[in-house]
Amino acid sequence: MLTDGGGGSGGGGSFEEDLDSVTPRSAPAGASEPPPPGGVGLGLRTVRLFGEAGPAPGGGGSGGGGGGGSAGGGDAALDFKLAAAVLRTGGGGGGSGSDEDEVSEVESFILDQEDLDNPVLKTTSELFLSSAAEGTDLRTVDPETQARLEALLEAAGIGKLSTADGKAFADPEVLRRLTSSVSCALDEAAAALTRMRAENSHNAGQVDNRSLAEACSDGDVNAVRKLLDEGRNVNEHTEEGESLLCLACSAGYYELAQVLLAMHANVEDRGNKGDITPLMAAASGGYVDIVKLLLVHCADVNAQSSTGNTALTYACAGGFVDIVKVLLKAGANIEDHNENGHTPLMEAASAGHVEVARVLLEYGAGINTHSNEFKESALTLACYKGHLDMVRFLLEAGADQEHKTDEMHTALMEACMDGHVEVARLLLDSGAQVNMPADSFESPLTLAACGGHVELAALLIERGANLEEVNDEGYTPLMEAAREGHEEMVALLLAQGANINAQTEETQETALTLACCGGFSEVADFLIKAGADIELGCSTPLMEAAQEGHLELVKYLLAAGQAGGLKEDYFGGHRDGQASGEGGL
Questions:
Q1: Which domain holds residue 188?
Q2: Where is this region: Disordered (predicted)?
Q3: pTM over 0.70
Q4: Could you tell me which residues are beta bridge partners of residue 370?
């Protein structure tokens, strides 16, 4: 062992060393405290740093407890070993050096045996020690070694090996300052370790106050182990009805999931809610390692949630390619439908996850499979959501762009509903039909006009869309735009030649009557100034505005002088007692 100055009689400031006696990762012999929390023992060795000739720190002649020990004579020596460890802090005087001295344990600055056996480090160390003891000017060492030593001195706040006034490293004052700096660093490290122990002890005391569910929620594996060892039920549920394993899986606590499964947690436990399994939770969260762990423990890869989703469905919706591959290799059903009728491919398409869709198609997913109720396909869903890259991928993979949903909407019509211009452009470039398909109820332009998507409407008109095509209600695109109050769209359609006075067959409604019915004064004003006929329709614009209670619009129509004899006829014929004209308003 490295002795610390006790018991001998005289001699320089050096120590005897027996590296073979060092026990890695164990507490020093005689230490009264156990290894720190967490079971990490300290593979430490005693170091004494001398900076001046004379007795070792702690003083004293022969014998001496702790720091007392042999009186030192001769030149200054710095026994700076390549491993720091236990810094003895015992006081001087009396007795022989003992392993029972009080110690401060420091986990920093440790080099293992491999470092000590390194020939470069060994050479540097020997040169450092011999030069310090013999007073050699270290400015003559090789540049690499000198650079390392200068870095050490700079860290200690000393500076270069040779100062401006010619001091060499072997100067006792230099050594004293270095010794003091290193000693202070070790003291600070020891104090930090003591604080860490105190904090860990405090935290350990709090664990006992938590429930098993709380410990699981915090991901505290050690606390969970302790509570389970005390007999707690691994299959208990949280107050919200969630199983502990499901909680761990949804939070991504892999080690905790391992512990719970090792304690025989039910791998299919859905909790009191009966919604999702742990495998679904892990797949939904993107935790591929936990997914693999659960599959190893025989989790049902095709189990369905209360909404009909499987682990594969969740993984596809989340875009987790690695999990999708793992589940497919484990036998996941690639064509399962959830309660919306969506397959995993449809969920991936709806979310725009191209790479997931690519994997699914490689495993044989049906590209044109559609939902039973709404007849949606992967392509129509991607178009409705505006996922341009997904639409391009599906078209290249052979998706049918003329497939119709339950509303008889094609992929182009779905894109038009939400105004996805670039998706519509791609579909048109791929040959999509710009006008109303057979058996459909409305045209792409009607849908764009209804939504007020001006740029898209302009694209459709440019590609040949019919301005006068009517939907199942008999409305033209202009009527739809007026009914929804889209003034800019009305202006575009009129500029492109739309018929301002077109009427529906059954009720003779016009764009103006529809605008007045909705109370859209600005659109009505625009249409009137553009030449709309106010006398058309079974119900005139004034009648529509009055019936719906749009007082300001009624005032506008009257003030504009557009009502003519309609005011008296309307009120006289339908509201007796108010035939006296404007006073009735």
A1: 19-200
A2: 1-72
A3: no
A4: 377
